[in-house]
Inverse folding.
């Protein structure tokens, strides 16, 4: 009996070791590109062009990071990523808040105030998620021109809000479906109006999905390059466009160390969001986003 | 019920629709009007700038007579199928492993999720090096003593698209993991306990009980990953720029180069319409069944 | 009321946009020069413009060999808000001029006699009909071979006189453990070699027939097959790690002796000079080998868009004058590695390779061997030129027969018509 118990414990141990082993191995694989980026950013350019692409730096230098942040040339303006980083913040915050807010309202209407054709409306909005954005660049540019918003950050906020609505509406609609209708009906009988129910019942309950929506939107909008390069110019460009200008050199020599440092600086906000809010992300998804 | 409704009642009736109206309006313009515009351009002779004439299906003939487009379409299907299957598989396995009361779960989760946060404009370069036979994995393994080891897919026109799948899986599987993990957390532990009492092994419980319960999570993951697969653009540009020898061209890169580099706006618009039609053929039945189900469920 | 909201947004937006601007008139210049050396060269222009009292508002859009910039420009034109000036390459300037969005610079041309100073072969790319629409600033030569002198000495070889010799030399380099040819697999890098082969094997006249006039007979001729056959041999000179390799990394391989040669335009020269290498002593620069040598050129020029603000128009005039100014052409090209677009300037203080290029150009202008580089859009228009890139790149990385490549070329060109 004792030996049987022992073998069960041993197989359990082996099982645990297998699980941890797999998880750590996967983590190592996942960190590999980051490792390449970090080590490269700490090398000198001569070392890289000498043929050392992968592997530890011979001499660690933070020069590339300083350069990427405040000296790297984007065209003839050698300001580093700093001003564009600020542009991106000015763009991403209102765009995320607006699209999430509108998505919440839409989800609320589509689930608790169904009207004839509500499903059709939802279908129309959802299909918009899958629009290849390359196809809408020129008509969008014309519209922005007519609105007097071309080449500006408010214009970019508008574009991101419009195409962000599709996903946020999907998120909130699928979440609100899981909230029992009785809750809103009871509130209605108590005399609460449309907005009252939204603000005092739905929104407080929607915190988890709001986190999901914000994280998704933040990532999409922060990392967007296509709209940024089409609808802004020069000093109003978001950080991805500036990053592209640092990185995407055709006829000149590439500064790989600065490129990698710049990429990591540009990714910092999204990284922070994932690391800090990652827990809430899973929690938010648990709370209902995955209930198709 | 003949009592006449007061103005405020009527306003209350219309309020939900009024709230939806702006969203619907911008979607109608920003999505459907623009699609119509693209459709029109695809029937015109546009080259550098939009021309509003009519040449019938000429641009579509031209499109389908372009070998690069055939490559792009084939790649889209290869890429999407593999990307979805592998990402879902890897994400699911990671989620199940992470759900076993793992210490340092938070840290591991962050490691799996971080690729999603990075823009491919530069991680593409890192991947390019890792996959380059003279710089990356192959060189490292050869250096360790296994000299016949070959991993040069990125240099092979027939295999290069798979390297893009690898990088895309790396980027998105953490996201799939998060959704599956959420699904697993939503399942009552007593289900597992009950099955264990009946003598089922853990892998069996997962295969026949838990995974089927994750159906909603599978649906969400599929929708979000399809979105990523269709939008796949930065990744290809950064890693192979469509090469070697156009072997990794996908519809979005084809559309971009036709419209903005090759002065073939009409062909670009035609390729956009083909893409939209493909998406519609897949999404509309799905939407229809989903929405019908939810109506039935009332 | 209807227009209030947009107007409000617009005014607040323009307020934001106007904040960093000074009192002086700002000219927005769109370009894709984002490399450090390119930006440094551009600063010469910027400073000269500032000396005339005009500001330079930089709109750099790098990547995709200018593809991203073309995308940005189309969006800007669609929104009715074009930049003041733009850097053009290939047919872009002429094509936009045909769309009626460019302004002409005839008055300035007549006053300064610019046309006489520009090589006649270049004129079709800066003149639309009788109108001068762009000011060329530099000229690159594309068909150069850059070689490591020490590697050549080690293998006991000298500058090859024909492609056959070059390929033989490659074998000798390989024997002494040197990669014969360093390059990357980007279509344009392969196309650079293809362009050279077409002119070197078929001669300048064949080049014009095949790559400029797109004559089907020339495209499917035996000469073209021979070009592809030779390209296949060139593939044998390249190592397998060439995937995704930047040209500057390839230059690095020649500089450190890992590779023997690189076929690349003269922008590669900066890499050698920056390492302190001396032309003739440490590295060699010679034109791609041929019995009918040619000068394959590409130019960068600045074109001006039609704008409503007369102050901006004045700034455009100032920019054109600055660009065509002898001093700017001299200083700019010293940094950029190219030679002045103007043919009437002294180049005494340029390096030996540039001087050689300058001499070769004079000869090529004489005997009709000035060829626009197809790779960079100075032969056929983009919808055709990119077909060459497609076919050549596919041929190079696959096991494709020369006949099939020629066939693909003909049908591809046909489909793009």
């Amino acid at each position: 009996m004792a030996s049987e118990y022992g073998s069960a414990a041993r197989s359990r141990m082996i099982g645990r070791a297998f699980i941890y082993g797999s998880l750590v191995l996967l983590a190592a694989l996942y960190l590999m590109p980051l490792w390449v980026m970090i080590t490269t950013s700490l090398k000198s350019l001569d070392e890289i062009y000498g043929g050392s692409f992968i592997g530890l730096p011979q001499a660690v230098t933070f020069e590339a990071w300083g350069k990427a942040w405040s000296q790297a040339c984007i065209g003839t303006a050698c300001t580093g990523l700093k001003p564009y980083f600020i542009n991106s913040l000015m763009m991403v915050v209102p765009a995320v808040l607006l699209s999430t807010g509108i998505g919440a309202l839409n989800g609320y209407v589509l689930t608790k105030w169904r009207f004839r054709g509500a499903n059709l409306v939802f279908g129309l909005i959802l299909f918009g998620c899958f629009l290849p954005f390359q196809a809408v660049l020129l008509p969008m540019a014309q519209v922005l021109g007519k609105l007097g918003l071309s080449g500006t950050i408010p214009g970019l906020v508008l574009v991101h809000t419009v195409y962000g609505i599709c996903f946020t509406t999907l998120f909130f609609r699928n979440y609100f479906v899981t909230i029992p209708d009785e809750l809103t009906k009871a509130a209605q009988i108590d005399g609460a109006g449309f907005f009252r129910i939204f603000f005092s019942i739905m929104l407080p309950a929607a915190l988890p999905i709001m986190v999901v929506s914000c994280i998704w939107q933040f990532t999409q909008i922060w990392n967007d390059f296509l709209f940024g390069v089409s609808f802004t110019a020069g000093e109003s460009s978001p950080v991805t466009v500036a990053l592209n200008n640092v990185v995407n050199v055709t006829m000149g020599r590439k500064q790989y160390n600065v490129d990698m440092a710049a990429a990591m600086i540009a990714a910092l906000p999204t990284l922070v969001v994932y690391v800090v809010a990652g827990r809430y992300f899973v929690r938010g998804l648990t709370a209902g986003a995955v209930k198709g | 019920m003949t009592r006449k409704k007061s103005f405020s009642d009527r306003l209350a009736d219309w309020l939900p629709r009024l709230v939806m109206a702006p969203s619907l309006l911008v979607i109608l313009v920003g999505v459907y009007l623009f699609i119509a515009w693209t459709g029109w351009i695809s029937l015109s002779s546009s080259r550098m700038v939009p021309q509003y004439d009519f040449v019938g299906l000429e641009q579509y003939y031209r499109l389908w007579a372009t070998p690069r487009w055939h490559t792009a379409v084939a790649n889209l299907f290869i890429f999407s199928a593999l990307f979805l299957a592998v990402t879902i598989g890897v994400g699911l396995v990671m989620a199940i492993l992470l759900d076993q009361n793992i210490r340092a779960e938070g840290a591991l989760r962050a490691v799996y999720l971080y690729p999603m946060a990075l823009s491919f404009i530069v991680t593409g370069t890192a991947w390019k090096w890792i996959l380059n036979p003279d710089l990356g994995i192959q060189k490292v393994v050869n250096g360790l003593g296994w000299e016949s080891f070959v991993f040069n897919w990125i240099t092979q026109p027939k295999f290069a698209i798979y390297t893009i799948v690898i990088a895309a899986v790396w980027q998105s599987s953490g996201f799939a993991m998060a959704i599956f993990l959420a699904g697993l957390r939503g399942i009552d532990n007593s289900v597992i306990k009950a099955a264990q009492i009946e003598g089922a092994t853990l892998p069996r419980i997962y295969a026949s009980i838990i995974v089927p319960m994750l159906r909603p999570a599978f649906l969400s993951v599929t929708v979000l990953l399809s979105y990523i697969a269709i939008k796949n653009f930065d990744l290809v540009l950064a890693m192979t720029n469509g090469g070697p020898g156009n072997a990794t061209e996908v519809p979005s890169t084809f559309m971009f180069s036709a419209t903005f580099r090759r002065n073939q706006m009409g062909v670009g618009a035609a390729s956009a319409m083909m893409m939209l039609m493909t998406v519609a053929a897949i999404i509309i039945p799905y939407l229809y069944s989903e929405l019908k189900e939810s109506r039935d469920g009332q | 009321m209807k227009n209030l909201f947009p107007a409000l947004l617009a005014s607040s937006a323009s307020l934001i946009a106007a904040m960093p601007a000074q009192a002086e008139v700002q000219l927005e210049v769109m370009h894709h020069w984002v490399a450090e050396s390119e930006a440094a060269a551009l600063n010469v222009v910027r400073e000269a413009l500032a000396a005339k009292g005009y500001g330079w508002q930089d709109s750099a859009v790098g990547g995709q060999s200018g593809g991203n910039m073309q995308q940005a420009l189309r969006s800007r034109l669609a929104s009715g808000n074009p930049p003041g000036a733009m850097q053009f390459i290939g047919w872009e300037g002429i094509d936009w001029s045909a769309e009626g969005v460019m302004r002409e610079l005839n008055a300035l041309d007549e006053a300064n006699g610019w046309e006489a100073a520009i090589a006649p072969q270049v004129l079709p790319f800066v003149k639309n009909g009788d109108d001068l629409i762009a000011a060329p600033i530099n000229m690159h030569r594309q068909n150069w071979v850059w070689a490591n002198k020490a590697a050549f000495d080690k293998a006991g070889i000298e500058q090859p006189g024909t492609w056959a010799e070059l390929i033989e030399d490659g074998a000798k380099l390989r024997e002494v453990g040197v990669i014969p040819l360093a390059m990357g697999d980007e279509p344009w890098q392969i196309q650079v070699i293809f362009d050279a082969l077409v002119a070197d094997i078929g001669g300048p006249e064949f080049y014009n027939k095949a790559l400029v006039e797109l004559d089907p007979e020339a495209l499917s001729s035996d000469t073209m097959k021979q070009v592809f056959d030779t390209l296949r041999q060139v593939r044998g000179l390249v190592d397998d790690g060439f995937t995704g390799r930047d040209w500057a990394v390839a230059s690095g391989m020649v500089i450190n002796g890992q590779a023997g040669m690189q076929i690349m335009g003269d922008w590669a020269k900066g890499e050698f000079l920056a390492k302190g290498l001396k032309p003739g002593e440490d590295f060699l620069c010679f034109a791609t080998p041929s019995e009918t040598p040619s000068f394959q050129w590409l130019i960068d020029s600045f074109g001006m868009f039609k704008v409503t603000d007369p102050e901006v128009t004045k700034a455009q005039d100032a920019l054109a004058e600055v660009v065509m100014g002898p001093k700017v052409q001299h200083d700019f090209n010293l940094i950029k590695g190219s030679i002045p677009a103007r043919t009437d300037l002294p180049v005494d203080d340029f390096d030996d390779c540039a001087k050689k290029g300058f001499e070769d150009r004079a000869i090529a202008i004489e005997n009709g061997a000035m060829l626009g580089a197809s790779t960079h859009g100075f032969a056929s228009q983009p919808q055709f030129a990119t077909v060459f890139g497609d076919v050549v790149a596919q041929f190079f990385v696959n096991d494709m027969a020369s006949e099939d490549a020629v066939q693909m070329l003909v049908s591809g060109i046909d489909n793009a018509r």
Summary: Confidence is low (pLDDT under 50) at residues 1-22 of chain C.
